[in-house]
Amino acid sequence: MASNIRRIGILTSGGDAPGMNAAIRAAVRTCVLHDVIPIGIHRGYNGLIHSDVVELDARAVNGITSRGGTILYTARSEEFRTEAGVKQAADNCKYLGIDGVIAIGGDGTFRGARELSKYGINTVGIPGTIDNDIACSHYSIGFDTAANTAIEAIDKLADTMQSHQRTSVVEIMGRNAGHLAIYVGISVGATSIVIPERPFDFERDIAEHIREGQYRGKHHHLIIVAEGVGNTNEIANRCRDEMGLDTRVTIIGHIQRGGSPSARDRVMATRMGHRAVEEILAGGTNLIVCYRNSQITTIPIDEALTMTKDLDEYMYRVAQEITI
Ligand code: F6P
To answer: How far is the centre of ligand 1, averaged over its atoms, from the C-alpha of 226 (Å)?
Structure first.
């Protein structure tokens, strides 16, 4: 693959997600294969602004596929939101000989990549967030591992809740989206799943489901609430006060972001990391590598940022209909 690209920078930005390391490893090794020098950029765009970078090679990424988090560290850079910050990062890229940048993260990360590309740096984004809320891609790195982590925790919780015949209200991450909550809720057989994309009505969405369960002999109930709904404790209080249920709240929190990545995340991340380098070497810029219709493909960042992600209506209906 003939190209003028000599050095490619790789960074992770925003919330970390299990599988980011596999994407870094794939990108590094694809660079090496094509005689391009991979440069690790630390702490997201902050590393570009402050020239906090390290030259990598194939051995530098040994054994990282199984590790959660990101070996490059991550941050949400306030400085990079300013024109001066972007210019400083672009100047440093030129000084360091970085011709292309692979940015792994969410929409904020992609907005940053778009700004950098305006200064002539070839940028390609890779979706990496447990929220799976990136509109252009049906999958984002970390979602599967986060779901499995939450499921494992809830299975344990179910043991004690069942023994005490209690009601569990469990908060799941996802920022403003309910994709993770629905996926986890279906997997654990939740009584109700409350997500920010749908208006919430306690009577219809929770009380009726619980009564239906009680009628069929259920003594313990599991309510999954996506964090974006913003009233997990209030829902638990209403279960206790209005329905007389012995209720406990569990916020799984940042545990969902850690842990060894699942096979799905490792493979998806590896494919995306490999593709991102190939795109830059082919002259691509201002692109996002995404997963659509079972294929790894690319989409211009400008177009991707205008898209909105709809809820998977079928999944949501399944979740509602099998709660009885
Ligand atoms: O975007 C990933 C995510 O874990 C969200 O689910 C959550 O709302 C947010 O990041 C938490 O961010 P922080 O790590 O800054 O607390």
So the answer is: 12
